[in-house]
Specification:
5-stranded mixed sheet; alpha/beta; Nucleotidyltransferase, domain 5; single chain
Length: 234
């Protein structure tokens, strides 16, 4: 069994897998030491795979060092099924790329992670990263408008918003919520013209419904980063 750890900008997620199947999932709500003690008692963990975009964490390091199982910390230098990995590519993006490519059955793949930022990675049929993009996520757009203007208040993101706002709040939410949706649709339409076999995998905290003319295969996969970690072999 593998213990998978995905540490993002806003939360940390843990999963236990058995033969590729997620048998346990949780968001970290206690100390690393307590979490590891509880999970290693409940499951026969034989390896730990870690993806982190956060800084150094002495508590995490100490908890990992106290365990007697091998630990793989994913970086852009880790050997895997993905090639042409850019220097410094975030571990979460690489894990998502691995998870998507392993499921794409040899098709050109667009991997979208809609979290604090929205990241795009395009992967060729043979597993080579063609390129990508990064843009602000929904809440980051709202925060930027508030912090860089004198009068615009800060609002929390909502799942849906009108396309045409009728007051300050609905106008800000319109752009912050619908803007990423239209941006993603634009990327998909553009790439479909170049890659007719395109398939799309979306993960992260925000989910989107797309226009009817977006006809390529789109998979929303909450566990894409974790699945990518699970696919890596020591």
């Amino acid at each position: 069994m593998h213990l998978l750890i995905d540490i993002g900008n806003t939360s940390a997620k843990l999963a236990v897998t058995n033969s590729g199947e997620i048998v346990h999932f949780e968001r970290l709500s206690e100390s690393w030491g307590n979490a590891f003690t509880r999970l290693t008692k409940a499951y026969s963990i034989d390896s730990i795979r870690l993806s982190s975009v956060a800084g150094e964490d002495a508590e995490l390091d100490a908890a990992l060092n106290s365990l007697s199982v091998p630990v793989l910390r994913l970086t852009y230098e880790t050997p895997c099924c993905i090639s042409n990995v850019p220097i410094g590519l975030g571990a979460d993006r690489l894990a998502a790329d691995i998870g998507a490519y392993q499921q794409s059955q040899g098709r050109t793949t667009l991997v979208i992670d809609a979290g604090t930022c929205i990241t795009y990675d395009i992967i060729s049929r043979d597993g080579s990263i063609i390129g990508g993009a990064i843009s602000p996520g929904v809440q980051l757009r709202l925060k930027a408008m508030h912090e860089h203007t004198a009068l615009l208040p800060l609002f929390e993101a909502e799942a849906t918003a009108p396309v045409v706002g009728t007051d300050t709040k609905s106008a800000m939410l319109s752009a912050a919520v619908n803007g990423p949706k239209f941006e993603i649709e634009g990327y998909i339409r553009f790439l479909q013209k170049q890659y007719p076999d395109l398939c799309v995998y979306i993960t992260g905290g925000n989910s989107f419904d797309f226009s009817d003319d977006i006809t390529c295969s789109i998979v929303h996969d909450t566990y894409l980063v974790l699945k990518g970690l699970d696919f890596i072999h020591f």
